Sequence to fold (150 residues):
Amino acid sequence: MSWVPHITVASVIKSDDKYLFVEEYVQDKVVLNQPAGHLEENESLSEACVRETLEETAYLVEVKNLIGVYQERNKNSLDMWLRFCFECSIKEEIKDRELDKNIIRKIWLNKEEVLKENHFLRSKMVMKCIEDFEKGNKYPLDIISSLLEK
Fold:
């Protein structure tokens, strides 16, 4: 076995005191997560965030700020997750777009609903991103230098 790093992006989108989440299947279990996914070859972190949010929610978003960078490792695995979480705003909804196959639905919840309704979170990073957003963590996007050639 060898160490496996996963570079991921996630979006925090808030409207009327509620956050956008997705319910998804992960290893035959229903979990709650931000719209999130893996960075793909030749895309910037911001581009990945826009793409993943669109694929999982049918919302086209604008990336506003970096909220934080998070590292998590499951003690029973060699997988390590590095998540770049962004504050985003919705530009438009693409009405008839199908969502990714593992997505059950998009759902708007406030923080208290997430905690009291005993949702299974995809990872500890889900609430940490919300907490940091509520603390006011906002870093300009140019803190991330993208040197990709197009």
About this structure: The two ends are 35 Å apart (CA to CA). The first strand starts at residue 4 and ends at 12. Residues 4-140 form a domain with the Nucleoside Triphosphate Pyrophosphohydrolase fold (CATH 3.90.79.10).
